[in-house]
Amino acid sequence: MSSIDVPLRGNRFGSTARRDLWWLGPVLTLLGLGTFVVYATWAAFQGNYYRFGPYLSPFYSPEILGDPQHAWAGGWPSWWPSWAASAALLILWAPGGFRLTCYYYRGAYYKAFWADPPSCTVGEPRKRYRGEKSFPLILQNTHRFFLYLALVFLVILALDVWRALWFINPQTGQAHFGIGVGTLVLAVNVVLLSCYTFGCHSLRHLVGGGLDEVSKSSQRHYAYGCAGCFNRRHMMFAWLSLFSVMFADLYVRLCAMGLWSDWRIV
Amino acid sequence: MAVTTFRIWRGCDEQGEFRDYTTEVFPGMVVLDAVHRIQAEQANDLAVRWNCKAGKCGSCSAEINGNPRLMCMTRLNSLPLDRPVTLQPMKTFPLIKDLVTDVSWNYAVKKEIRKFEPRPPDAQDRTWRMSQGDVDRVQEFRRCIECYLCQDVCHVLREHSLHDRFIGPRFLVHTAALEMHPLDNANRTGDLKDRHGIGFCNITKCCTKVCPEAIAITDNAIIPLKERVVDEYFDPVRKLFRILRP
Question: Residue A215 is nearest to which of B63, B133, B202, comparing CB atoms?
């Protein structure tokens, strides 16, 4: 590789000739992601108020261990530490890892949290730089494996929406069809999560982008086109789905706590 | 008739400074027009590289109010003119004089990228057939005018001066145009990972933002190349399939 002799000129942290509000984007990202991380961590450690009627908070789905009546594997074993007895702690690493390694979020949080760089053409706080070429950031290359898990989660969350259509009559104990605001909240959340996941750069690559002649397979060509369509709005869906999943948890939580009433539409 | 001040970098690296030039500006003017006016009336020795004045030659790249842009495509009415407009050369490359930098490093890098290697002709007339859809994908990359604004804004080169280990967004786009070409048979993933340093890119998308040709550099060139490197070197499942495949 050719080298070059570029004299270093004052690269102080934050120095730039830009006059626009270059700091606004990183600050909004910091606030948005920071709010989500703080809320999700708090909600995950609660271990209660995650179910209301047929609604299950997306932070707690699938409920592998937890409520003996509903959880896949029953109640918590006696030896399980009580502070960690939360179904969310068992599963949130998967969607969390998907977002953490997402190409869009990487670029956003490198700027907002590490100032690497703070913004385009703005001086950085450190001279040393290794990028994603060595540990630990080389682990970002695991994104596609988190994608596979995220696709499974989409199916599970879609099933939760189906279950959220069936309300138990307290008098008869029979399930009957209905739609509440909570059903719509969970449904919109799944739609937004799907739009985000289907626009994933790794998915676009796996369904056809990795081929030089993708048009030779009509199915893969179609899938590549669809993924590309979602991919062009990846940033928008990344933010919308982030807030929708947080709001869905908040909605179920407040209903379960009795602070909000779920309004039945049908 | 409005008057605007331009704060232009004069001199070479060691003995340079910003100097203010005040000149008349008219509706429809671009930054390069104002620079030419200053050059004609006040600073005959002002060095500025330009050619087409139409955003197609990529010669007049500079940093306008800190943003890498083509001077010929930046209209004055898009800038705040109540304060001096700052004009400085691209920071990533060695300065020759005033607004002119030495971009020859880029030519040397381009020579090191593995060339196009077409597969043997497979049509009856001893030529090839390609699908328009497959060609369209790489056609986006061929819009590049080599203005090197993306190289200038890339913090790996600009802030960390890793010119000897990272080829920069422009040449990742060039590599993508070759690597994704429906006729090309060469495999450049090893070079991308090791010699071309694609892992240094941390996807800040600054290159995409400054591209005057609106090429989706990060989304359509760099990330797909990163994914190809993952296919080859970081995906054990694929590796297993490759071993088991007859």
Answer: B133
